[in-house]
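Technical note accompanying the year-one report. For the benefit of new consortium partners, we illustrate the data format agreed upon in the data management plan: each record pairs a sequence with a structure-token string. No post-processing was applied to the example shown here.
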Amino acid sequence: MNIQAVNSLPNISPASQPASEISRSNGGDGFSSLVKDAVESIDNTQKQADKEIAKAVTGESPDIHQTIIALQTAELKFQLGLQVRNKLVGAYEEIMRMQV
């Protein structure tokens, strides 16, 4: 590749694009879509665990191990989400305490 070819490339820097265009070009709406996806994932895991409990109670699923695994997975995901939330709230509070 020669210098002429490099100079002819379009100048696309993050500073020259609005934030909304940057987030769309990255394939998402940014932080809000990330949080929404995480919460939906936790919710879906909890619903799946509830279904496994219902199957175990009604006798449809003789494998109690699957039920316990589903329950533990839902619990771990919830605890992870809770800890991430706590860290984000702590970081926000720290930023708010900063003097400008």
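Partners are asked to follow this layout when depositing records. The chain has one domain: 30-100.
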